[in-house]
Structure formats: structure tokens, C-alpha cells
Amino acid sequence: MESRNLLPQNTRLMANLLSFSGGALDVFCHMYYHSLVATQTGNILLLVADWRSSSMYHNMLRCFSILFFSLGFLFGMWFKDHRKNAYWRVYGLLPLCVMTAILPFLTPNALLELPIIAFSAGVMMKTFTGSQIENHPFVIFMTSGNYRRMLTALYYVIQGSEDQKEYRRQAVNYGFVVGSFVVGAVVSALLMRFIYIKSIWLITLSLLTIMVYYSSEVKRLGLKKTNL
Known about the structure:
This protein is an all-alpha fold and 228 residues long. Helix content is 70%, strand content 2%. The protein contains eight helices and two strands. It has helices at 12-33, 40-49, 56-81, 88-102, 110-127, 144-159, 164-195, 201-221, and strands spanning 132-133, 136-137. A two-stranded antiparallel ribbon has the order 1-2. The longest helix is centred in the last third of the chain and has 32 residues, at 164-195. It is globular, with a radius of gyration of 18 Å.
């Protein structure tokens, strides 16, 4: 399926950039704040498993992350219900893009920074809920479902099931999003060792690329009023 037949948010480039951002964001927040923002089930597991060994401060950060991500997701639902044109998806990325851009210049205050990042991640999550890579649904942050779909498609390819072309394409597409998530996580972890907090600009750059690409495609294809 060629990109020109797809809506901008459903192309392989968008899927890879979104997954890359999710992997990079969670690794940065785990290494810097000892908390996750994209994978909230991971936060719940960390809270339960490390409740006695972790400091109360880190447990509080995880609770704040869960709370503000949830609030951001709910706000994203309201925002989506009141969308006016196709550019609402760009606006849904702006809070996280701005926060990641200015974070290295702020006086460190995790109890303020992490809730804002988590809230912004919740808005982004809702903005791209229902995302597809070509015509295959995927999740932008939590990649376990994408990994499961990749393995399922690979199984049917190996088994020699009917419609091999479709199963191969599924395997490739889900392989791309899983690989992008892993690459984002690895690159973020490596950059943390060299430039520390400024490694968050990797996420800023990824989000800016998404916004520029999406906006240019909406304008080029004349989708402002129809791609809601």
C-alpha cells in the first residue's frame, strides 16, 4: 500500500516516529525521574514491587505520573470532541514538545516537571489512539500489543497460511514499530550517559518532525476539513 493512498497519520513514517518517541520518553523518565510516563502499567508494577525498597519520594512521583497521565488522557478526549480541523493532532503534541524543549533550562523540580510531562503524554496518547500503520492498528506507547501482533503475523508467514502477502506486510509493519520503540529507548539511554538531561531534546526533535510532516501532508492533500 503506497503512502499517497493513506491519511498522513497512518503512514509508516508517522508510526515509526510515534513509536520512537514513546520508547525514548519512557527511558528518559525512568533514568531521570525513576518513574514512567508512557507505560502506566509499568508504573503500577514498579509501585507494587518496589513499595518497600523505593523511597517515598519516588513512589509519590509514580503516583503523580499515573494521576496526571489519566487527567491528560481525559482532557485529550474532551479536546478531540471539540476539534475543528485536521490540525488538532498537531495541537495535541504541542504541550509535550514545549515541555521537552524547555526542560533543560528549568530549575530542577521533579514534583512539578513530571506531572506536566505525564499530562502531556496522556494528551498525546489520546490524540493518536486508534493510530494505524497503513491499515494495521497499533499502540504508540505500550509496545507489547504491537510485539504480539508481529509474532502472530510471523507465525502465519512461517506456517504458510493463505494471503501470505498480507501477513508479510503485517509482520514488516509491526516489526517497524517495535524496532522504532526499541531504537528510541536505546538511543535515549545512550544519550543520557553523555548529555544527561539534554537527551530529552531527542524527543523534541522527533515530535517536531511529526508535526512538520503531518502539517505539510494535510496542506498538500487538502485534508484540513476532512481528516478529523
